[in-house]
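ingest -> fold -> write
write: protein_1
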Amino acid sequence: MISFSKFNIFGDQILKNINFYANLKLYKYYHNRVIDHYENPRNVGSLDKNNKNVGTGLVGAPACGDVMKLQIEVENGIITQTKFKTFGCGSAIASSSYATEFIKGKTLQQASNVKNSEIAKFLKLPPVKLHCSMLAEDAIKSAIQNYKNKNN
């Protein structure tokens, strides 16, 4: 009879090595800001979508499968609270996280003028991941439009 306990220890070490090298690869290709917002995302969660002061934007990219929900809470024309939930790659999560931080405290007009290039430039996204910042811009605009529709 073969004891698999010896192989399990060996297997665990292999998994640790794979994770170590995968993280090295991640750090090689992505700027520290992307990694920070991916590993420590800000404003994750949901707001009450039935609250008239909350606007919700839900956008997706069929090509890569990323889906982003971004919510804003507005008081006296100022975005006071933001939340997001994203299903997607690390760059999509980082873009969502940074977008919620970036628009907090801005007026609706200021937030509606945010461009994906500002998000991409801050995070230093590689060209192949620019669609993630475009999703974040679309989510912001969609949340603002939803808020306006509820309040007009």
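write: protein_2
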Amino acid sequence: MAEDKGAAAGGELDPKLLDILVCPLTKGPLRYDRARGELVSEQAGLAYPIRDGIPIMLVDEARPLSEGDRIPPEVRAGG
């Protein structure tokens, strides 16, 4: 049986996937939001859901980011 490791409803994501997955719209990097169970594309302003540990990389299934979901550029740049 699968063990719940405390991840959000989307399930645990294999860290190796983050190395190879990109946003299908921008081809840019993705950020894993464990609390929401989503892969976030800051460039596209979209959050792709993770269902049963499987990222759903379809623009039609993505949620638009609100201002509160975005990381300010100065924080992203480490400044």
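write: annotation protein_2
The longest strand covers residues 46-51.
Residues 20 and 59 are 18 Å apart (CA to CA).
pipeline exit 0
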